[in-house]
Amino acid sequence: MDKQRIVYIKSLIWFLALLPLARLVWLGANENLGANPIEFVERSTGTWALVFLLATLSMTPIRLLTGQIWQIQLRRLLGLFMFFYASLHVTTYVWLDFSFFWPDIIKDVAKHPRILVGFAAFLLTIPLAATSNSFMIKRLKTNWKKLHQAVYLIGILAILHFLWLVKKDVTEPLYFALVLFFLLGIRLYYKYQSKFSKLHKGVRI
Amino acid sequence: MVIISKSDANPSNIQPSEITPRLVFEDRRTFIKAAGFGLIASSSILLSAKPRAAVIAGGETKGAGVLVGRANAPATSEKVVSKYIPRQKITGYNKTAYGAGEKLTKYQDVTTYNNYYEFGTGKGDPAIESTLFKPRPWSISIEGEVKKAKSINIEELMKLAPLEERIYRHRCVEAWSMVIPWVGLPLASLVKWAEPTGNAKYIEFISANDPKTMPGVRSPILDWPYTEGLRMDEAMNPLTLLAVGLYGEVLPNQNGAPVRLVAPWKYGFKGAKAIVKIRFVEKMPLTTWVKSGPNEYGFYANVNPEVDHPRWSQSSEKPIGAGLFGGRIKTKMFNGYSEQVAQMYAGMDLFNNF
Which of A34, A126, A185, B353 could form a disulfide with B73 if both were Cys (CB 3.0 to 4.6 A apart)? Predict the structure, then answer.
């Protein structure tokens, strides 16, 4: 894939990725966010963070399944949009939901595992976003890859955060869990298979 | 796919195009096909799916069989109100001093932001999914520890005592709240009419459970029928109301038509909706939410800012209608009704009896 085309695709991602935010701004400006607008914004930004997380995590499986590698170049952009929506999500919680009232926020995070795992997931995204530039990639060398494997943990924590939110009907978080399960499963399968084939070759010799 | 004939449709003749765009259904198919591969696309489709209505199209309901939880109310609640709620005034009720000075939650919020899992787990589902529900004719059977089992129809019930308007605060266990002008009568007047025996220590309320008109009960999210209960003294408390209307109008389906329980010092889920059966019993009934999560929901479920839900805080609440920048307000003990109800729990450990 030539460079020009990647630029086009990246522009398209920029455009699409900002649509959910534009929608929230539009609905907010028209007072159309429903009866519980804060919850609406929390839910929306949280879900979109999760969508971009899963999108980021699907670049490698696409390579494993199809042999294509060009899409790896989109991974950073998708990951940063994940961070963007996660930041909006946390900002909504801290600002709109809790009006920066830290005693209540600290109590909420410490007392409730649901908030705690969500908060932990967000904290983990910060070093990943900070080291996503080319300079840090070069500087951290092999450690960069190790650090960025934290994204698997972030995925699991984020799903738990969603799962523990719902009172009874877990259908929606389960959809996301299923996608995450496949994305991680494909990786494990290929990792395991390549190890196995190496071992197999060894036996033959 | 559940088939509902056209004759069952609400006479208001809802055009399917007005409820759920065809694209949503087609998108869902695409999602199923694409699952595992087109991950970006499929996730966004998942999100764009609107609450599915029991849409009558070509003689079948689409989507009503599968309900997906969704906190987001449809952003067009005004449209929902004007299209789906047949509004009918109640005549001859008395205004009361209850809740004087409280700022009412908008009608459109009260009727489009509901927890009523019989019509779906999304807050916007009940307003749209309850259009097939028929709240009349209606009768409630009175059973258990009473002189004689009998039944009462909704018209007779509404004449047991003068109807009153009472403005009550409504606090949901999910930490949001409303202020609602109910129209109803004290539960005590029905209890007296029922003539319970000396063995009656608790009352069990059983809600309607009709898979034909209540799409939510087709999935076993809760153990249907919905069951709630009160201790006898709680039932007799003057605050406890059987609501048959709100905002001076006949109770809309999504708010529990034709008759629902309102105990304003308890979390909203205690208010059984569309009551079909009332049983007087000796032992504390096992209620639906207690059955579904005994460590999260208790029988008493009194509003208590000191006792958190295991997964979220109960010390504050979001008032519905306060807007995007409205923040939270502090939750009050017994939802601010201590004066009227605290004596019933004197000496009781409210942490363990949550």
Answer: A34
